[in-house]
Amino acid sequence: MTMRYGRYTTIVVFGLIIAFPLLYLLSGSLMSFQEISQYPPKLVPSELIWQNYADAWEYLTPRTVLNTFIFVISVLVLQLAICLPAGFALAKIPIRGTGLLLAMFIIPIFLPANLTLIPTFIVTLELGLVGSFAGLILPVVGHASLGILLFRQFFATFPGGLIEAARLDGAGWFRTFFSIALPLAKPVIASYSVVTFLTAWNMYIWPLVAAPGPDTRVLTLALAPLAQGDFSNISPAVSFAAAVVAMIPVLLVFVLFQRWFTRGIVGSGLE
Amino acid sequence: MTDTRATQRIVTRPGAGNTPRPAGRRAHRFDVVAAWGMLTPAVVMFLTFVIVPALVGIGLSFTEWDFFRPPVFVGFDNYTRLVSDPDVWQALGVTIQYVVLGVIPTVLIGFMMAVLINANMPGVPVLRVLYFVPVVLSVAVSAVLWSFMYDPRQGPIAALFRVVDVPPVDFLNSEVLALPSLVLMMIWLALPIVIIFYLAGLQRVPEDIYSAAALDGAGTWRMLWSMTWPNVMPTTLVVVVLQIINFVANSLDVALIMTGGGPLGATRSLSLYAYEQAFMSQNVGYASALSIFQLLLIVGIIALGRVLGSRSFR
């Protein structure tokens, strides 16, 4: 019994240590300027200053929020549109050359994204896409290794009999894909979508080099200057509120789809 | 003539087995058309934005280019310059520090925490959420948060220092402490994913080995290190590779936002140096050579890891 309480205490203590920065962020986002700058630091605001959120919204601008949604949702939809059929074809249609294609798709998984940053930028520049939504979105969609391999893995473990039956009934591959494979792939689509949403929402470097202009600027770009000690004209509490605003959609997605997120992460580990 | 060949191909095709093909010879051609119909969009996007850039990057590493005037071929000049550039060696050292200081604690702490919260006790599933909290935060959001956490006057970490009577320093502007400070934040950001992997890995460890060990009188720590840890080795290998990639990749974003690579290059990794050369100094050729250099290092490390790994398993 004592061991049990000991374990509970340890779980809570370590959990609070890990969660502390976020709790501090939430609490600080509601403090007045005097309160957040005082020493020793206060942990709970004496009065909730909601005005910080209004100021933060004005700083981030609705345009930036909209841009972020356009970016993230386009990446997600286009990735699903190219990765799902490719994964299905690699797993289920017996043609030559799939081994070679698979090998090609696997390589980039082991390369840190920042290695491909400069060359990808150069190609995007030569295509005349820098500064546009197309230039922001398409290169991210093109780095599709993870999706293709994840879906191939899923379709490979797929009950083969179902596909055979559909084929014998005279359904073409496309028909089989849309009416048999896709509906059964819902769980893996959900997992991949959650992971991709979080990744795209949190991207910083690519939007910074590909489309930093005000018409295409995403939230992370608006936030970054607040971290560089640029607290002179903006209260840290407003910076915190801006960080919370930028975090709410991901937080919602994560809380609602936590189960799928867990599966997506482990599934992408190429086990 | 054509008919016989096609039939032969279908019969001898591996995997075709005894399944009768309703459409005869057309089935095979249709397979190819359908497969490429489904593969083409992905392959085209992949070639355009991954393979072509890789080749262009290799090509440009042999040139001098400023994004505007046409590139000038300079042979191996960029590579010889790179070897004698002291900033490259400093950045290489910094990159190694990011990886070593980051990956080892992340993996060990992640493992311990996963074991801790892998408990069938009421309430634990709810408490687990606390451990997953950082996963929703981007580098940009955490940078805002942690810059203030590290503030030497008002930040909570400075307050902790004062409690134990050590005067706090300006963490992010200290040549010694800036890098460990960034790494601490990166460990915190990476922990949830490592914990999730280990939770999945722990489920595959058979329960009965513990009861056997308990009968033999093994203590908790003993079981942890001689039973659980070896049993999750496959997970550990995956986690280590992913975290090396994560710390190399994130070192760019984190340092660019929080310290700009400073003070005096103390947090400037190879990728940040390449970024500066490309986007601030417009030395695209040199930046490409730096990327290729980094690529060769990583391929070398993975190859070395495979050789050592396969040896230790035999």
Secondary structure topology:
The complex is a heterodimer of chains A (271) and B (314).
Chain A: H1 2-28, H2 33-36, H3 51-60, H4 62-92, H5 98-106, H6 113-126, H7 133-142, H8 145-156, H9 160-168, H10 173-184, H11 186-201, H12 205-210, H13 219-227, H14 236-256, H15 258-267
Helix pairs in contact in A: 3-14, 4-7, 4-8, 4-11, 9-10, 11-15, 13-14
Chain B: H1 2-12, H2 25-60, E1 63-64, E2 72-73, H3 77-83, H4 86-117, H5 124-132, H6 139-149, H7 156-163, H8 178-202, H9 208-215, H10 220-231, H11 233-258, H12 270-279, H13 284-313
Antiparallel strand pairs in B: 1-2
Keywords (chain B): Cell membrane, Membrane, Transmembrane, Transmembrane helix, Transport
Transmembrane segments (chain B): 33-62, 96-117, 129-149, 177-200, 232-249, 286-308
Organism (chain B): Agromyces marinus
Describe this structure in words.
The complex is a heterodimer of chains A (271) and B (314). With 271 residues, chain A is mainly α. Chain A is 74% helix and 0% strand. The radius of gyration of chain A is 23 Å and the shape is globular. Chain B is built from 13 helices and two strands. Chain B has a two-stranded antiparallel sheet with strand order 1-2. Chain B is 72% helix and 1% strand. At the A-B interface, helix 1, helix 4, helix 5, helix 6 and helix 7 of A face helix 2, helix 4, helix 5, helix 6 and helix 7 of B.
